[in-house]
């Protein structure tokens, strides 16, 4: 909270008036991040997804991202954190991914069955895992490419209608 207060040019008391604890601040920061940046539109699913992951990687690797990572780590992966993150920012976090996939479906690069929030956001979940679980200060570009080429694209391109 000291780092956040310093960066915001205020004091911790002011932060605690708005966010009662570090957990709620982390959720608010995550939600803001998920709703303020427009997804890329390169004309290619692979390029869009890779650029979106690169942007996220740059953010999570930045000083602001370090603060967010520390807040999430301080929460200790608490069940409360996971529930609130999903509840308060799940739809917002999925929206840009669903936009990227919707464009890809319109271009014939993915099947309509890929338009599922859990499927759409798996690449970001894997990137977040690099930071939160592995403690990486930044994910190498090779990891991003692996996430896209080995997991994301095969998943969205190969997804078919669920069995009846």
What does this structure look like?
The protein is an all-alpha fold. It has two domains: 1-33, no CATH class; 41-158, Orthogonal Bundle (Tetracycline Repressor, domain 2), CATH 1.10.357. The protein has nine helices and no strands. Helix content is 73%, strand content 0%. The chain has helices spanning 2-8, 12-18, 22-36, 45-61, 63-74, 79-106, 117-120, 122-132, 141-158. The mean pLDDT is 83.
Supply Rg: 17 Å
Morphology: elongated
Number of domains as seen in the coordinates: 2
Proportion of residues in β-strands: under 5%
CATH domain fold name of the largest domain = Tetracycline Repressor, domain 2
- The low-pLDDT segments are none
The largest sheet is: none
Keywords: Transcription, Transcription regulation
Protein name: TetR family transcriptional regulator
Domain Tetracyclin repressor-like C-terminal: 39-151
InterPro entries: Homeodomain-like_sf, Tet_transcr_reg_TetR-rel_C_sf, TetR_C
Please name the defining characteristics of this protein:
164 residues; Tetracycline Repressor, domain 2; mainly alpha; 9 helices; 2 domains; 73% helix
TL;DR of this structure?
The protein has 164 residues and is mainly alpha-helical. It has 9 helices and no strands. It has helices at 2-8, 12-18, 22-36, 45-61, 63-74, 79-106, 117-120, 122-132, 141-158.
């Amino acid at each position: 909270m000291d780092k956040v207060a310093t960066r915001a040019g205020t004091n911790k008391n002011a932060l605690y008036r708005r966010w009662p604890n570090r957990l709620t601040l982390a959720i608010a920061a995550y939600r803001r991040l998920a709703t303020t940046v427009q997804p890329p539109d390169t004309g290619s699913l692979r390029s869009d997804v890779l650029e979106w992951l690169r942007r996220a990687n740059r953010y999570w690797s930045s000083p602001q991202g370090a603060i967010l990572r520390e807040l999430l780590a301080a929460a200790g992966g608490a069940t409360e954190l996971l529930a609130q993150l999903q509840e308060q920012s799940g739809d917002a976090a999925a929206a840009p991914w669903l936009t990227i996939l919707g464009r890809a479906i319109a271009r014939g690069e993915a099947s309509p069955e890929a338009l599922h929030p859990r499927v759409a956001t798996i690449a970001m979940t894997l990137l977040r895992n690099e930071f939160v679980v592995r403690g990486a200060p930044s994910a190498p570009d090779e990891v991003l490419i692996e996430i896209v080429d080995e997991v994301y694209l095969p998943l969205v391109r190969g997804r078919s209608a669920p069995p009846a």
